[in-house]
Every structure is written in structure tokens, then in C-alpha cells.
Amino acid sequence: MNFLNKSKWIILGGFIFGVLGALAVNWGNPNNMGICVACFFRDIAGSLKLHSATAVQYLRPEIFGFILGAFGTSIAFREWKPRGGSSPIIRFILAVCVMVGALVFLGCPIRSLLRLGGGDLSSLVAIVGLIVGVLVGIFFLKRGFSLGRSTKVPAIAGLVFPIIALVLFVFLIIKSGALTFSESGPGSLYVNPWLGLGIGVVVGFIVQRTRFCSIGCWRDIFLVKNFYLFSGVAAFLIGVLIANYIAGNFGADGPYHWGFTNQPIALPYADADGGIIWSQYIWSFLSFSLVGLAATLMGGCPLRNTILAGEGDTDAGISLLGYIAGGAIAMNFFIASGTGGMGKYGSWGVVVCLVICLAIGFIMREKEAA
Q: 310: which of 135, 157, 213, 261 lies 20 to 30 Å off by Cα?
């Protein structure tokens, strides 16, 4: 029996993933942010002193678990293949664009589903934007867009990111003075480091074996009419909903409620009179269109690239560096949204990155066509 081709496995894996993502909030992570790859990379950038936003600085052990879980699983199933050389600089730029879009919306595609499963109906606007971005990416894919083929690289290159993940986890455990940790805000809320690592390892195993991807699911539906990945994403959302209700997160004392505004750490915010700030819906849509477009051109969502880095894919590793750089850029240049609303230059950041991604789509397409 082929493990990867059985839809029951990705459904089961997606459901378990969703349950873990929801319960991570009850175990200590910020509300609506049980697992958010973009937010976690932003926090890691802050802990490494790449930005000075004191509320979002922490070494998130889940990221290290994703990498190490994927590394161990790929070794066990003989799928660890050191490779790279597929337009690394372009991937880095696209990764920065993904982070800009995600941090304006305040979440990666995984968190958009966690927000929806936590009653945040405004995330539907962003998910529609994500689909539109994926469709634009498919437009380029159908016309020859390609970042080129990767080739075999020395084993040591494929070991770099698992080693980095392990070293940073050790730094987290010993609370290294070379790093910075938030004393208040979302960065000060976290699960026990060993539990966070364990969650990451389990998710790393699931994603590595099933190829779960919140971008690939939409790409495969529209490009090849394949619903395999989508079934896992749907199961993820169901798992989130069930876990939130069982855990009492929708109860009188719970953090969640159904609605479009005043959700925990999420755009759009209500104005002083409780009315809807419509412009924030527009930018939520456009920012996630940016995420969908850039991630489609890269070949996967932030979580998928994190898993690939654990499998020995150095191009995905370059993407991880782009996520960290993007998190730093978004925070340092007032692009990221926060509890006070959109960043001062959030709209500019989205527009500039959309232009960059469209330019890459056309230029790389022309190069391949030639």
C-alpha cells in the first residue's frame, strides 16, 4: 500500500494537525496563533535582534520541530536528498514578499484557517484573496514560468538547516544571553519549549509524509483538478473547529467568538464606534493575494518550504532565510500590522511586492520560453 497516495492518511494527518494547532493556544501560544509559520519566523527574527519590536521576539520551537521532524522522517523513509541551485536569489525575494503579505494580514495561510476555525469570518476575505493570487500564479505556470531545476549538492549543505534548528533550540533551552526574548505581548506567550518542539516534530512528520500544503491544495485544484491536498486542508479546518469547541474556546470565558471584527490579534479592527474599517478588508484581500502569488511561484507555502529545508532542499533553506529577512523588513519599516491596525507603510509594502512578483512572473516566463 502506498502511504502517500491514500487519501485517508492526509485526511487523518490534516485533522491531527488542526487539533494540535488549535490546542497550542490552550497550552500557551497567543490566541488565534497556535501555529503561524510567518509569525513564528517574525518572532525568531526579533529574538536574533534583526528587528527591535519588543512584543514579538522569541525562538519558536515549533519551527525547529518542523525542520527536525522532516529531517528524521525523510531519513527514515530514505527521502532525504540534498539538492539546490534553483534560482536561490529569486526564491529569497519571493520569500520576503510572502512575509510582507502575511504580516500585513497578520498570519500565514495556516493561521488564516486557524482564525476561521476560531470564528474569525474576516479571514474568508483573505482566503479568497489567496485563491486569486494562486490563480495569477497558475497563469504564469501555464505560460512557462520556472525557477529552474535543482541539482544534487554535497550532503553537508543539506545538513545546514537541521543543524541550525538544533543549535537554536539549545540556545532557547539555556536562554542564551545573545538572544532577546519578549517580556510582554505575543512574543511572551508560548508553550513549553519541549512541548513546542514535540508539536513541530509531529507536524513535520505529517507534512513530510502527506505533502500537505495550503498553497498547493488550491494550485492542484485549478491546475490539474486534483483534490488530494485539499482534503487534508479541509480536515485541518474541521480539526480546528472540533478542538476549539471541546476545549471551550467558544464558551463564555473562551477567547473566540463568531464575527468579522474584534478578533484576537487580527485585522480588520473595528473603529471607535464599532463600525467596520472597510479599507482593512481590501488590504487583507490584496495582502493575501500577494501571499498566494509569491508562494505559488515558489512552489509551496511557508510550512511546506520549512519541511523541504529539513529534507535537504537548500533552495527551501534560502526561502527560510527570506522569511526571516522579510519579517525583519516588515517590522523595521513599519509594514507589518499590529494591535493598533495596519502598519504605516503596509499598503505600500503590499503594492511594491505585488509589482515585484508580477515582474518576476513575466521575466522568468520569458526566459524559459526563450
A: 135
